[in-house]
Amino acid sequence: MDVVLVRWPEEAIRLEELRALAAPRLLLVAPEADPPAIADALEDWIRMPADDRDLRARVATLADRSGRAPAAGPALDADGLLRFRGKWIALSPVEQALAAALSDRFGAVVGRDALAKRVWPTEAPTRNALDVHMLRLRRRVCELGLEVKTVRARGYLLQAAE
Description:
The protein contains 5 helices and 9 strands. It has 162 residues and is an alpha/beta fold.
C-alpha cells in the first residue's frame, strides 16, 4: 500500500478523507504549524523542510506498518465515543467498559471473566447480564464497520467487519 503525503494544515480535509479510508499517510507539517495529534499507527508527521533521508525513513516505516496492519483498531475516547475509520458512536458507561476491553485487544479473544470484571469489578453479574450488554454492543458497533464475534467457551473478539 502506498503512503500518501499530505501538507498540514493546508490539506486538513484531504487528511480526514484518508483517515476514513485507513490509508497510510505522512503529514508534511508547515514550519509555523503545530502538528495534529496522532492516534493511528498508519499516520506520522515530519516538519518541513526535512532531510530527504528522514522523509524516506518515515515513508518506509509507514509502508511497513500498513503491510502488517491494513486497518488500525478502534479508539475509545474519554467522552465515551468509539471511533473507527472516520465514523463514531456514543456509548453508555457499560458499553464503554466492554468496548475498552475489546479495543485494547482488537482482533484477539477477550474472556468472559475479564469482560465481566471490567464492567462489574466488585460483583459477579449473571451470565445473562453480560450476554444482553454484549448483544447491545454488537448492534451498536456494526454502524462503524466492526463486529463482535463469540468464540465458543472462550469469550468475545472485536474485529473489522468483512
